[in-house]
Amino acid sequence: MNKKHWITLLLMGIFILACKKDVVLKDHPVIGEISKFLGFQKPVNFPEPTYNFANNKVTKEGFELGRALFYEPRLSRNNTITCGSCHIQSSAFTQHGHDVSHGIDDRLGTRNSPPIMNLAWNKSFMWGGGIYDLDLQPIAPITTHEEMDEKLENVFNKLRQLPKYTELFKRAFGTEEISTARFMKALSQFMLMCVSSNSKYDQVMRKEGNAVFTAEEQEGYNLFKQKCASCHSEPLFTDGSFRNNGLGISPINDQGLYLATLIGTDRYKFKVPSLRNLRFTAPYMHDGRFLSLAGALEHYNSEVQDTPNLDPLLIKGDKRGIDLTENDKVKLTAFLSTLNDEEFINNKLLAEQ
């Protein structure tokens, strides 16, 4: 076969491959996932994000660096704990099975690991506040004694010894230099991509396909809007505020937001969590005291404590809490189940590679 025939066959092969591009990409497990990366995409039923993307645009390279760092044990003092240790994807990035976080040397924290999802719409972070920029948030778990117990410079020195990271930083930022700003921005890019927006609720709201609530779910939705939406506002199912929901004073006297602000009226206020993915994020509340959703609902019905700074929405004359019949709780549970997002917890792009 002469050279001309070889060239002809080669061109035909390229043409056939191009025609089958979608099939090739779909069938290849790595290329297929990479091909899906579109950067940060705002769901159509969500408001505009609060994060300033102008200062940190999500790129494929930055996201991949952030993902590697999120699952990197060298962020901890003894190289055993990753961000993913306390934020497990199958549990909507919470630490399933623990009431409070378990960190390095199995040290116990004082609060439940909050889920990592929809952070682009958050103005503040942590159960008790004190951090108002996502790019600064990782400093807390890395340096906290009960979590990773490490210093940032030690982390950077360990990463600098690995050619993997010098290459990843170069791809993401055009330089091998590992700095605090680049390190934090890369982690933010990963966390910003942890968007949960494809639950049944979202599909109903977007009128996708034939998605509709069942009669019980619709009744639960109506009850939710009457009794819960003041704090857990749609579509994020949190208003991002800090409130005292009447849990009572804990044995360790965790005073919540007050520890960050030192303002007396902030005592015992904690961040209102999102109600998305409740099937995966038990136990509930800032200290993980309720093992089931039924327990959390009963708290609001009959167990609200009249502690200092109790949220006014939970004060109705002599009554503390929210009146919920057994039937109400069944219907609310049905609606809250529509907020679970299976696609989110199974998204391969967010998994450890």
UniProtKB/TrEMBL annotation:
Q: Where does heme c 2 bind?
A: C228, C231, H232
Which Gene3D superfamilies does this one have?
Cytochrome c-like domain
Q: What is its main location?
A: periplasm
Q: Which residues bind heme c 1?
A: C83, C86, H87
Cofactor binding notes: Binds 2 heme groups.
Q: Which InterPro entries match?
A: Cyt_c-like_dom (IPR009056), Cyt_c-like_dom_sf (IPR036909), Cytochrome_c_Peroxidase/MauG (IPR051395), Di-haem_cyt_c_peroxidsae (IPR004852), MauG/Cytc_peroxidase (IPR026259)
Q: Which UniProt keywords apply?
A: Heme, Iron, Metal-binding, Oxidoreductase, Periplasm, Peroxidase, Signal
Q: Any idea where this protein resides?
A: Periplasm
* Molecular function terms from GO: cytochrome-c peroxidase activity; electron transfer activity; heme binding; metal ion binding
Q: Which residues form the Cytochrome c domain?
A: 215-340
This protein's GO cellular component annotations are: periplasmic space
- How does it get modified after it is made? Binds 2 heme groups per subunit.
Cofactor(s) essential for the protein: heme
What's the name of the protein?
Cytochrome-c peroxidase
Q: Which organism is it from?
A: Pedobacter steynii
